[in-house]
Amino acid sequence: MRTIRTAKKRRAFLTAIAAGNSVTAAASAAGIGRTAVYSWRGDDPEFAAEWDDATEASVDLLETEARRRALNASDLLLIFLLKARRPGLYREPRSVHVGGIPEAPPIALTGQTATVHVYLPDNQRRRVESNDE
Prior knowledge:
Elements: H1 7-18, H2 23-30, H3 34-43, H4 45-72, H5 75-85, H6 87-90, E1 94-96, E2 107-109
Helix pairs in contact: 1-2, 1-4, 3-4, 4-5
């Protein structure tokens, strides 16, 4: 049986998502099946965008609560928030050594992106055997 799409169910689902509920819990609160909301999302780009906005609102709630807890009681949580919001200042520098060339310098990962050049030896994997001899 197919779920009938109504504005009321749509609004109830999006409100539940924005409040921080899982997709399953939000669908249940709206009286919709979990697979139905994913079907709606695939069929309706406007609904998908509203769902994404509601998800962002729920993350904002989590960040607000994390900040409150960090300022009131948790040094560790405060450190995580600072590292997330000011990585250049508070996050430890990271580097990665990619195998293949042992003498290659490590790659420093700073900011949100990094360019990685990787050497992958052939190891004879692409060699074509021929019996024409």
